[in-house]
Specification:
4 copies of one chain form a homotetramer.
Chain A: E1 2-8, E2 11-16, E3 27-35, H1 38-45, E4 54-55, E5 59-67, E6 79-82, H2 92-95, E7 123-125, H3 128-131, E8 132-134, H4 141-144, H5 150-160, E9 168-172, H6 176-187, E10 192-196, H7 200-208, E11 213-215, H8 222-229, E12 235-240, H9 245-254, E13 255-263, E14 272-276, E15 288-291, H10 298-309, E16 319-324, H11 328-337, E17 344-348
Helix pairs in contact in A: 1-11, 5-6, 8-9
């Protein structure tokens, strides 16, 4: 079969691979729609180290091709969404409420990390009963593919932020994860959602997804602006959706004592992530710092699909570009340069 | 001053009373708008026992008339919302996270219970810095008065129900508290909100406030209908907003194992509230039963007022009738008979 | 192989059965030590309905005989503890934090319920990687077998009771689960643990396991006694470890507003479990009622085994009788009549 | 009256001051026993900036001298413990569950910070009903004074660490707060408590208070040692009780994915507190970082006093030195140099 792979750091190609086979607990899925993630591009760039001919991609929906002997919930022909994170549900970490960390840090992240990803004619799903969900008939593949990562990750950041009804939230950076964090904050009943973003298209989408205020850091001093918007009190919760030391620091500065900093950004550089000591109350201001990695699992996927089915979220507004699978390399190039106002490029496998 | 009082069980009147005075931590407020609560009518009927000439009412907004020596946040002339529940914030129960239970069960409920209520020319607020909030200029008195009880109580029921994003919720009875529980469930990001109600006007409001489905118990068997709507699984959370054994029982029946029953209904009759043993999994199905009494406090009030100020909730759709203070007895009569499709009668003190 | 079975309601026997075989995710274990549970006796009595030739028993440790193709953590010859509850870890309920409810209410309870139990020469363990744990070399089989149910269940009740450091707890009934709930309360740092019990031997064990006070309900009025012991305030948490309407009612009466009633007793009779309406604050006193079913899983088992390995708990004081497997029927008889001060009879399979 | 004050940075003296007076919600207390805290010495050294003639000290018990008009719980002559942190219980932060942050970061910390402390013949207590507790007759003043800060702070760190029964914990540094965090971990039912400390006397006390293992960082590599002790998995929770970048970094390194780092150390230096990026799972390993400031309040004090009254904790083993009030300057000198194996110097005011 054809697979879009990372041949080595910096090099991608479409190559021929053997079709995957399902062990007892697994399924093989033929993707219909996929989305390219910025982290895919980082992977090609070497962010997680060298890989040889690993198939790329972790966001996809498709049709079940075959299932293992122990699979009870799915059969060939089923239309399914597959979590970007596919935990080992029996692992101690999963039993402890942290499935995304199964067996090791970030251990639930398998696609295009420790095994082949989804950008191929077929892909393999471990613990398929637990890691896939049926797509309701009223939900399109294009919408459904957003539950696999973007919605789960962004909403998860908002959930971990423990936002009270009527509370105040600042979301730093409005890429697709940040936009879904903004939507997640709105879904939790926040009273005021402040989006930090400078790109007009993203500002506009932030408002579409529920931002009450947009702070453009190229025009105002971000921390001052947020403190002003909150009558000098700071926010109940700040969500870091960029993965930079600068915004992480601002998150701590704008969060009120007793508030929560929810980090969902991938911090890709530097030896340390810096907590500003004074703003952190010298370690005693009860500004908790929490992190999360895209919650996976059938239950989670079904809950997110329900939101789509009931028309409560429209993630497809983030689809800025569309490519056939044969042109996937163009999507990666664009995602790398972030040109043309790209947010999410959709890959069509049909 | 004029006060609308319960002279004794079953008897109300407007009488002349001395104006209240503020102790060091108190404030005196002149009400501008109030709402009659079904519990006021129950009080007159004897639900909490005999009272003599106690001023009725606990839902009001108004203008600060005077403040005690220790008050720092308010001054005469300020436009304020006052919580229906006015806890003693230094009490052990409040320190334990249960301010509504300060000093005794339901101890935060003082108005028209252990001291004069708000249906008078002036009323007294204990721990005023902690129990009032300024009303934003963009929020009307009529909207603001809903934060004092209905929104706080109904939303509180939804918050205690611990609804996951995309989860399923059933709300039993769509009186004003139930309607606000429905809205609260929607605000928490529920994927499917099922409202149980038979009165057309209330069904319509339930949909306005976020119900995805309405179950009319006069037309279908409620439990079966909810199980069908949830593919036989039951809901993640059920909210009891009526206070009857029948609906409480149904709440436990429709909640999935591991789910939450959030009771906010006042159970006014019978020696026992009945948990159906089998549906409760013989005491081992992890169907938790939680209860709450209207969260009060400045922080809470401000968060709810923020939702009004940002236009995220419009509670005034529940105002079905309007009365001048001098006609308040009519409002009570109507609230008692529940005629004319009454939901909430607004009292105008101007 | 020989198996001790329930032939039908009220009838037990040792019969010959085929040895179980391991599917891909399973293991076959040869038990070395087991414990008879009161629920085993109830099962024989018909509590969960008719069964035909089902092997009894759910508390056992042993040696791995064989493993399925997907098993990574264990190999034949390993000395293991097996949870009485063996959840399906990929099920939605488990993903939701309720593994004991996997797939249906109490669905994690499989041994001697929906499949053969452990009182045989060999028994079958589903999802063995997730549902067994190695026994540390310093821990005896006799001690280890207590982690499979009694410690996990009793401690779990204490954990769900959400006891604050220095808080007050009442534990109703000091059978083996109640004793372990008492120990669990002590382990959570309770300031005052009140055990309700009338049998001298159990009172003595309650004190051994951490009770600060013992209330003998045959000598004093239980509720009054507990209120006196807590200066009239009631306890932060009450644990129901009997499964009777009478003690459940008392639990609610002695719990302070804002406190927790943690039910771990199996309620075997009656249509309803009764909540006393007034003591429950008419449904608004924030007295939460939570329930649980023995937490299972490798992580849980390992944590409990660690307590044994470090000498922090000695459950073997509850072993009042010992029987060889061939005499297991005597153990059941004694457990039924509760004669001879029996608490737990140990079964030796060697 | 005589008061031991900080005249300015680096200068202390006993001076004559006017006796404090009680406002409506206040009490005046005559201290009987006090403890010097390392933070007192830091304050004199300028850690919180310049102060002029502020009375030092925040850990004391004593006898009520007078009370304000609104005080209901106490009267002159009562023997009381006073929290080191005396929150404004009606403040929004307290209403939000963060009383120690009332009105501003660390705003509950008033003694010797924003008002006179306790090292004087008399001291003033704000919101006295909420911030003091009666000392049970069976508890000595010397024991009781430890609840005001050391026990509450150390235990609080353990509580925030969310330690499961049987879980693993590492406590970095065994000064008095670290020792009480070690005891707190033991009180929560930890399965393995690892204390990091090099001073023999403190190692010995750590074992007395519940450490199962002691890691001497002068002899072994701390992180390696802790990973070895936990079979390479890392701990469920790490408690930072020193306030240094080096130990904070180690805390993150030894905590397993999904675990908690509970910071209770005062970070006194540097612009940033450094999170090691890789060990933190690039911001996605769900290693939460939480902080706390000594929980105060009557309820908290009573719960801790109950532990003393029941004989469950003996904090007096930390009293290494005793001084009369007139010799308090010697205690400060010794606390500064940390000579003579000092842990806590007790001040006797009689």
């Amino acid at each position: 079969m054809q697979a879009y792979v990372m041949r080595s750091i910096g090099e991608t190609d479409v190559i021929e691979k053997d079709e995957p086979e399902a062990g007892p607990n697994d399924a093989i899925v033929r993707p219909t729609k996929g989305l390219v993630c910025t982290s895919d591009v980082h992977t090609v760039g070497g962010a997680i180290g060298e890989r040889e001919d690993i198939t790329l991609g972790h966001e996809a929906v498709g049709v079940v091709e075959s299932v293992g002997s122990e699979i009870e919930q799915f059969e060939p022909g089923d239309r399914v969404a597959v979590g970007a994170i596919t935990p080992d549900w029996g692992s101690p970490a999963a039993q402890d409420g942290h499935p995304s960390q199964s067996n090791e840090a970030l251990g639930g992240w398998k696609f295009a990390n420790v095994k082949d990803g989804v950008f191929a004619e077929f892909f393999h799903v471990n613990e398929a009963d637990a890691n896939m969900a049926h797509i309701p008939s009223g939900v399109s593949d294009e919408a459904a593919v957003y539950v696999t990562d973007m919605m789960s990750t962004g909403f998860g950041a908002a959930e971990r932020a423990d936002i009270p009804i009527g509370g105040t939230v600042a979301v730093f950076a409005q890429g697709p994860v940040g936009l879904m964090a903004t939507k997640g904050a709105a879904l939790r009943g926040a009273g005021q959602v402040i989006a930090v973003e400078s790109v007009p298209k993203r500002q506009e989408l932030a408002e579409f997804y529920g931002a009450d205020e947009v702070v453009d850091y190229t025009e105002v001093e971000t921390v001052d602006a947020i403190m002003d918007l909150t009558d000098g009190e700071g926010v109940d919760a700040a969500i870091e959706a960029l993965g930079s030391n600068a915004t992480f620091k601002q998150c701590i500065e704008v969060t009120k004592p007793g508030g929560v900093i929810s980090n969902v950004g991938y911090h890709g550089e530097g030896e340390f992530v810096d907590i500003p000591r004074d703003a952190w109350g010298v370690g005693m201001a009860e500004k908790d710092i929490v992190t999360s990695l895209c919650p996976g699992g059938r239950l989670r996927l079904r809950r997110l699909l329900r939101l789509l089915d009931e028309g409560k979220v429209d993630p497809t507004r983030m689809t800025t570009h569309r490519f056939d699978f044969e042109d996937i390399d163009e999507a990666f190039q664009l995602m790398d340069t972030k040109e043309e106002g790209i947010i999410k490029p959709l890959i069509d496998f049909s």
